[in-house]
Structures are given as structure tokens and as C-alpha cells.
Amino acid sequence: MSKFYLLVIPIVIGIIAGSFLVFYPEPEDNSEKLTVSKLIENGSPVMGKNNAPITILEWGDYQCTFCYKFHQNTLDVINEDFIKTGKIKLVFKDFPLNGPDSLLAAEASYCAEDQGKYWQYHNELYKNWGGERTGWITRNSLDSFAITVNLDLDMFNKCLDEHKYQNKVNELYEFGREIGIDATPSFLVFNDEKIIKIRGNQPLEVFLKTFDEL
């Protein structure tokens, strides 16, 4: 990757907001971790075309309020205008800040991936979002979502019972911390030359500005 410049750009849209873009890397010792391959590997399946020139790496938690809002609003526009048109691809990585229920939901999404239905299950989780630490994520609710997306329930439950993907999710969380992720949602938007970090569920205009910058 070419040399990055550290720069903080305040964004003012309508009212004063605490949004910002950060050009990576933050500490120099992260440079080996902040390659395109390192950032994408071990995450979700790619949403969009693999050869899309820009990647959005979203760090999220299935109980996170602002993650839910991003998925219900901004992502729809990005998907229609940029992902489906081959300009951008999206990868999701778990950053379960809200405790064991978030960890379990993340595990369930990868159990669904075993049956080729990661994004269907991922979307079902956000469609049924019930708040932060309210108890809506249970084995029964996860089974219900699995039935809705037509998973083999026995296979799905075996995967959850064995905690097949618990280590994977924990490793994603630790990797996120190592590269400076500290809140959800957080986004690394990058091409082959530059990485821009967006922290929080910012207005669509912030993402559009970032796409233009890249």
C-alpha cells in the first residue's frame, strides 16, 4: 500500500455533529494488519462483486442500536446505488460489545453460513432487532430466525451447541481492538491505496464523501 496520511476531517451536516473521517494507519505498527487481504479475511462472505474497486468493512454488534439504524436506512441506499452496481462490496466483521447474547448471535450467523445463508440470516437478525441487552436473543429466537430462512434446524443447532464459531468471533473482536476499533458500528472504507475510517452511524452524505475521496 502507498503511504497513508493521518488526517481528521470534521463533517458538519445541517447541525454540528461529532462525526469524523480518519485516514489510516493510526499507529504505525498496524501497517502489516491494514492490508486489503488482512482486513477482508475471516469475515463474512462478500456482499457484492469480488472485483468491486472499493470495500466497506463494517464492524458491528447485532444488539447495537446504531448498527440496526444503519442497516435499516443507509445500507439500503448504498446497496441499491453502489453494491448492486458493482462499485462497492461489503464485508461484515463481528465486534460483540454487548455481551454473550451478541456473541451467540454472531456464532449463529456463521452457522447459517455453513448452509450458504449468511446474509439471509444476518438480515433476519437485524429485521428482528429488539434493543440492547433486552433478552431478545435466545436459542428459541435464533431457531425461529433459522426456520424463517429455511435452514436445516438440526444442523444449525448442532453448530451452536458445539460453539463451532465462538473462537472465530472472539478472534474478530480482538483483531478489531488491535487496529483501533472501539465502537459499533465502525467502518473501514478502502481501495488499494487508502483506508478511511468512519466511526458511528453517520449520515449517508459522509459515506458519499468517502466514496468520492477514494
Automatic annotation (TrEMBL):
Membrane spanning stretches: 6-24
Any one Gene Ontology molecular-function term assigned to this protein's record: oxidoreductase activity
Coiled-coil residue spans: none
InterPro entries, per the entry: Thioredoxin-like_fold, Thioredoxin-like_sf, Thioredoxin_domain
Record-linked SUPFAM superfamilies: Thioredoxin-like
Stretches assigned to the Thioredoxin domain: 11-214
Domain of life: Archaea
Alphabetic keyword roster: Disulfide bond, Membrane, Oxidoreductase, Redox-active center, Signal, Transmembrane, Transmembrane helix
Keyword Metal-binding: no
Family, similarity comment: Belongs to the glutaredoxin family. Belongs to the thioredoxin family. DsbA subfamily.
Record-given protein name: DSBA oxidoreductase
Lineage: Archaea, Nitrososphaerota, Nitrososphaeria, Nitrosopumilales, Nitrosopumilaceae
